[in-house]
């Protein structure tokens, strides 16, 4: 627990304050209403795990830019690299010429990605672009069109990525028709398994359902790729059981299907390893990364077996902005930091510290239905009834509002929007983390008591 001397939250106005409210009014007038915002805080500047709003309040960031800020806000090495690069080369496009930062970053990712096979990397701007390119490459390599994805998946907002995404009401409503040749299979979400099954029985059943689906729903000879998040993000931080991932790997090997691991939110050191799938023995054919790869700058990557990455015709991949020199320099410094044993050990410490506190909440508060995650990727799921597991999205929103007013930045998750995800920068101090958890705990207690 924190002490008064360790306090990092400093509130000089209510949150949101008058300047934040004025900025929000300008946002409402200038920006489409479809661009949601988890809080009404107007951001001025940030460093490490601390954010200062336009009213001068200092808050603790527990959302981490939705997983983009694993190395913290404005890390010195990243800032210096961007400044240095800005004076040399801001843009020329990798479609026009070659430049050192693009090639260096690709070499780093090729060496770091799971598996000892020869690999190559394509750099793009966003996670959605990475997913689209990974699927295109798999289709080109296999000569097939079908793509298998999973219940609860989130893979992005561009047309193919959105088609692969599960959560309809928040992301897909009104935007159809969606892409064809997509086949969605059941996910082993252990929290929502039938009460009559043990965890192992449920995993067995899910594996059998997958095998049956390869016969009844799509012929494996028509499937180009299986794409899966080793830890589902938007669905509510659902770790995939290693045995299930191994089962998918075997089926992909049997049928010549490309195994794509979407590490956009779960990768880059968030779970205590560079890639979350490294907690298993499964080696994917292709890995897509984004978010914390660029330390807050827009960059994403597709890293995979050389024969897959080389399978398209010349000019079949690429984009004007992909692999910006500025973002590449930022990513190089971020990956250096994330790859260090000290950083990955710190992610484990942060995760253990959060998990220990969350476990007490599950015992204390009737609203808390489940706590879960992997490493420093942790989440609380709120329900109205623990037996029925009835989602409590309105209570979740009230908890966030109270916690934000107490000095936190937070964002929801979950298929029912009834979860709070915790993605603090890995560089957060123990004192800052405890202080943030104190604020969130008080918010949960207030809402739990009120019901």
TrEMBL record:
Alphabetized CDD domains for the sequence: OAT_like (cd00610)
SUPFAM superfamilies: PLP-dependent transferases
Keywords: Aminotransferase, Pyridoxal phosphate, Transferase
GO molecular function, a single term: 5-aminovalerate transaminase activity
Organism superkingdom: Bacteria
Xref: InterPro entries: Aminotrans_3, Aminotrans_3_PPA_site, Class-III_PLP-dep_AT, PyrdxlP-dep_Trfase, PyrdxlP-dep_Trfase_major, PyrdxlP-dep_Trfase_small
Keyword Lipid metabolism: no
Record's protein name: 5-aminovalerate aminotransferase DavT
Organism (species): Botrimarina hoheduenensis
Lineage: Bacteria, Pseudomonadati, Planctomycetota, Planctomycetia, Pirellulales
